[in-house]
Specification:
The protein is of the alpha/beta class. It has twelve helices and 18 strands.
Length: 460
């Protein structure tokens, strides 16, 4: 099982060995994952069974690149539908792994531990036996009994406190083959897309379709996805990273700590992405929660595509889409620039258009307008719509610059900025979109005083 290390604008490494962390629920797999990754990526909570989907990340251990994978807990007792799907997914990752860290908890071996050890027999040469939560010698004497299952050695660690993690890292490096790892030496741009929306709108189904894999567990049960699941794929020679997130519900509906962290992590993906695909249930239409998600992305200057999913369940009438689109535009006029695309993640209709739109949107996000070109356009705009001349309303816009791309941010320098109306800022924003090639993305317009007064910022 090999993977690629990919950063947004970085050289790529190919054929990375995959290290899978496996074990029953609540042995500390996610804590160890975060410890080896050296950042908090997987959700950790005392509640057993927090991790469901495999959480993957590229990392370096002693300057060696590898793919690290945290799996859901192997649960035998009181299994529900989700538990069975988690076990199936975890076993699939184990089969493909180059190295398996079997994480056990200090103390007695449970029946679930024994069952998993039995399932690992075909992959015995790839298994490292590790006992967690042995800080201060806790249950260490009992933990040596793990050797009775036929392991040549067992490592005692504390993922939470960092005890003996260095020894584990050395063992990982020793057991892996890095000879197939290749560096491309080429710098490329990856389009990072986050799938956001309410629970059960089809985010995981779309993620699996795009990546051609089943990294995300798909279930009719709302809230199945908890961690952000990252995958990658290519489309028309462009490289994409897809981030499948937990469904975002209203705060009053979020009752568990686990869901609280899931929702916050989903919202954080807005910062880590270029484009947000907002998954909307076509039958339900745009909800207040959808509007809040879109507003967050809008304020951060991210590209936004509204995907009307489950379109195959809608009446196949000539004007159905126009009627739905008109209602959404009416409810959320501020997002008029955002493309609205009917899709079916289940059968694939509309997905081609979705990706083509994402590529066009990414190009717009990364347009950089030269200062000379911008000010020539500004002169024309001021001529077409002169600034007010009244004693209280007058102001002059002297020049403008583009501060950044992705997010697209313009600054205009003016006299008496307190007199600059929202309507005039909206005029400039619309002209930027129409004349400079930013038709489908949010644009941040900031007004600064040429005499050092306070600035005004207007994302739009």
């Amino acid at each position: 099982m090999t993977h690629n290390i990919k950063n947004e604008r970085a050289n790529r490494a190919y054929n990375l060995p995959a290290v899978v962390i496996a074990g029953r629920p609540n042995t500390g797999k996610s804590t160890l994952f975060n410890r080896l990754l050296r950042k908090r990526r997987a959700i950790t909570d005392p509640t057993p069974g927090v991790t469901r989907d495999p959480v993957e990340a590229d990392c370096f251990i002693d300057d060696k690149p590898l793919r690290l994978i945290d799996t859901g807990g192997f649960k035998l007792t009181e299994c529900d539908e989700i538990d069975k799907l988690v076990i199936e997914k975890s076993l699939d990752m184990i089969k493909k792994a180059d190295l398996i860290i079997l994480l056990l908890e200090a103390g007695e071996i449970t029946s679930e531990d024994e069952e998993l050890i039995g399932l690992l027999r075909p992959y015995w040469k790839k298994v490292i036996a590790v006992v967690n939560k042995t800080e201060g010698g806790r249950y260490e004497a009992d933990s040596w009994n793990v050797l009775s299952f036929g392991f040549e050695k067992v490592l005692m660690i504390s993922a939470e406190h960092g005890d003996n993690i260095g020894e584990l890292k050395q063992e990982i490096i020793k057991r892996l083959d890095f000879s197939k790892v290749e560096q491309s030496g080429e710098e490329e741009q990856l389009i990072r897309i986050a799938l956001l929306g309410k629970p059960n709108t089809g985010k995981s189904t779309l993620a699996n379709r795009l990546t051609g894999a089943n990294a995300s567990i798909v279930s009719e049960i709302p809230g199945t996805t908890r961690d952000t699941v990252e995958g990658s794929f290519e489309w028309k020679s462009r490289k994409f990273v897809i981030l499948d997130t937990a469904g975002i519900r209203r705060k009053t509906k979020v009752t568990e700590n686990i869901e609280y962290y899931s929702v916050n992590r989903a919202i954080k993906t807005i910062d880590d992405s270029d484009i947000i695909i907002l998954m909307i249930d076509a039958a339900e239409g745009l909800t207040d929660q959808d509007k809040k998600i879109a507003a967050l992305a809008h304020d951060k200057g991210r590209g936004i595509i509204m995907a009307l999913n489950k379109w195959d369940t809608m009446p196949q009438l000539k004007n159905t889409f126009n009627a739905v689109a008109d209602r959404i535009r009416f409810l959320f006029g501020q997002m008029e620039y955002a493309p609205l695309i009917p899709v079916s993640a289940k059968n694939g209709t509309g997905v081609d258009k979705l990706l083509n739109t994402a590529i066009t949107m990414y190009r717009q996000l990364n347009i950089q307008i030269g200062t000379s070109q911008l000010n020539q356009a500004l002169e024309k705009w001021l001529h077409e719509y002169p600034t007010p001349t009244g004693p209280r309303t007058r102001f002059k816009i002297k020049y403008g610059i583009q501060k950044s791309s992705n997010p697209v941010h313009f600054i205009f320098f003016a006299s008496r900025i307190q007199a600059v109306s929202d309507s005039y800022i909206a005029y400039l924003r619309n002209k930027i979109r129409k004349d400079l090639g930013f038709s489908m993305i949010p644009v941040i317009v900031e007004m600064k005083s040429s005499s050092g007064d306070k600035k005004r910022t207007k994302p739009s």
